[in-house]
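Protocol step 4 of 5: obtain the predicted structure for the target chain.
Materials: sequence only (see below). No template structures provided, no constraints applied. The aim of this step is simply to have a reference model before the mutagenesis design in step 5. Sequence pasted as it appears in the construct record:
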Amino acid sequence: WPFSTLSYWALILIQAQNPPMLLSFEVNRFQNQVVVTWEIEAGNLCSGAQVEHSSDSINFTSIYDYPGICGSSTANERYTFSHTNPISNAKNYYRINLGTNGISDVLSITFVKVEEDGYALFPMPVELSSKIYFSNDNNATVAISIYNSSGAIAYQSKPTKTNEFSIGSIPLTLGVYHFRISRNDGKEIEG
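Step 4 output (structure tokens):
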């Protein structure tokens, strides 16, 4: 499965009960889309499945309809759908509707679109929850260095495999800063 190397896990479980046949259900950011993945346990069949989306966790609309029979009598079956136009800079809510077999838990992901320069800083101005989001589709090891206006290092992270850094909680004095995200494959992102 090509998306298993992602390290962006912004899942929030909202009280519900998955149908017993649903082994897993995940939402992840990959490039500038949200990938919805679910797995149905062997021995279970359903008559179609729908991926449903909401901007408020209450009012859902179908964004993908898997037609026909889903599941298998002999093996677990995994399904993937790529939501190519999620709402940017906001929480997006997803669930799987298995018709008469039930509706999944609701999962959410805060989707921040990475811009052409390779990153997005959200929310702005910087506050406690602010993060720098960037593309790291190959799951490279990355580290961030933050420099003050004099060019001195004000903060340096430990190497990690991620596609976001929380910066709102870094103890920096008021001022203008520059950052560099260095990857172990030699690529850098600056802002």
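Step 4 remarks: The radius of gyration is 19 Å. Residues 1-16 have pLDDT under 50 and may be disordered.
Proceed to step 5.
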